Fold this sequence. Notes:
Layout: E1 4-10, H1 19-29, E2 35-40, H2 43-49, E3 54-62, H3 66-78, E4 83-88, H4 96-101, E5 104-106, H5 115-134
Parallel strand pairs: 1-2, 1-4, 3-4, 3-5
Amino acid sequence: MSLRLRLLAVGRRRDDYCSPQIAEYLKRSRTLLPIELLTYRDEAAMLRAASRPRVVLDERGHQWTSERLARYLDEQRQASRTTVDFLVGAADGFGDATRRDADLVLGLSRLTLPHRLVHLIVAEQLYRAGTILAGHPYHR
């Protein structure tokens, strides 16, 4: 069974310095673990569209290695999940209720990162997880 990954984000898509790189990772991921980037005007709209399991990206979340992320995705696939959603909030992040409702709260860094850079990092790490699971040499 195939697992689909969705990166749900608050804010508008913009043409910027990260767009070509994000597009490249989304393209590369198609044969491994397909990744889709969806943007919403506000958090409420994003939460209505989000499915389960729901991974909320927050600086207070677990700090995982790429290998641990790959294992998590493999666990979801083994549990016959079809979709895993990764949520990126607005500039002020998520409130306590959204974090409590998450299936997993994951932190990329304790540093504050620009939104589009977060999109790029998540896209790359999800692609990397796919290569780890496929035994591809990308991750070394």
